[in-house]
UniProtKB/TrEMBL annotation:
The keyword Nucleotidyltransferase does not apply. It comes from Prauserella shujinwangii. Belongs to the peptidase S51 family. This is dipeptidase E. It is an enzyme of class 3 (hydrolase). GO terms for cellular component: cytoplasm. It is found in: Cytoplasm. InterPro entries: Class_I_gatase-like, Peptidase_S51. GO terms for molecular function: dipeptidase activity; serine-type peptidase activity.
Amino acid sequence: MRLLLLSNSAAPGQGFLEHAASALGPFLDGVRRLVFVPFALADHDGYTAVVAGALAPYGVEVTGAHRGRPEDLLDSAGAVFVGGGNTFRLLRELYARDLVRSLRERIADGLRYAGSSAGTNVACPTIRTTNDMPIVRPPTFDALGLVPFQLNPHYLDPDPASTHMGETREERLLQFLEEDDVPVLGLREGTWLERDGDRLALGGAAAGARLFRRGRAPAEVPTGADLGELLREPGGGPGRATAR
């Protein structure tokens, strides 16, 4: 299984996906056709055009998943990229178009999977650690389960100088762990996970990530860290989060 799970697709002062060029180059090596899944945003054509422009320097032909029967498009592709936006809307459309089943099958057969933001959320067992509002209702929160743990893209550290009185991201994730015994990795901006078979590594910005586990203090994860142990977490498939 080959995965590239980005916290974000845009960075200040850089073009779309430009900050992740060092990871995209190897990931797309040998890929000639890629299917882009634009369903997290409403403008499917416009979103697909942005991604096609960003990936043109890699020599990759990009086709939007809305432009044909998704199963047929996936059969002729070497990779799929699922873009960010609203995670609830994305998951609803994946189920409506029978893409959850199709993606699981194709990825198990070697189709490379890249996601950013919402596209990273749906690679988890469920979408219950997304930051998004539920603007639509998907049939379930169960997602693709390409990794057996949860991710929180766009992770923000608590700001002691902030006047915001709502929960911090850390508090929200600790509340999740009160109900579910599943590790959560908070991906700070500019970071990503790369999976190649049983190997899993944190890449990108020097800020690194933050790992949350029930019953333990949150731990810092430096960029470059080997996170293969997270792939061996028990009970990490869709719908298998262990409630207390």
